[in-house]
Amino acid sequence: MDVIKAIESEQMKENAENFCVGDTVKVFFKIIEGTNERVQVFEGLVIAKNHGGIRRTFVVRKISYGVGVERIFPLHSPRIEKIEVIRKGRVRRAKLYYIRGKVGKKAKVKELIRRKNA
């Protein structure tokens, strides 16, 4: 069992969890098409985080041409170049699956405003 944990700890990324559920993020994901490799940006709302350790995943939802699109990303994948937080969200739930049923302004999450330490 210790061997498995040692291998998992080698493959985990450092500082990967700098975002929470409710945040709007940009995920820079490497796409391999034949011999070409490019970076595709997926911007949306984080509606869930699942599992733990090396198996940690997160679900990002966006609206594309009026259709809701969700994508599940493995957090510690080598294909994820970086995750950029656009805005922090103020939520009271761990899973935001109720957003799927909302349309327009009701599908928004309030922004978390933090005070500066003076």
UniProtKB/TrEMBL annotation:
GO biological process, one term: translation
MF annotations from Gene Ontology: structural constituent of ribosome
Domain of life: Bacteria
GO cellular component labels: cytosolic large ribosomal subunit
Functional summary from the UniProt entry: This protein is located at the 30S-50S ribosomal subunit interface and may play a role in the structure and function of the aminoacyl-tRNA binding site.
Family the UniProt entry places it in: Belongs to the bacterial ribosomal protein bL19 family.
HAMAP family per UniProt: Ribosomal_bL19 (MF_00402)
Protein name: Large ribosomal subunit protein bL19
Upper classification of the organism: Bacteria, Pseudomonadati, Spirochaetota, Spirochaetia, Spirochaetales
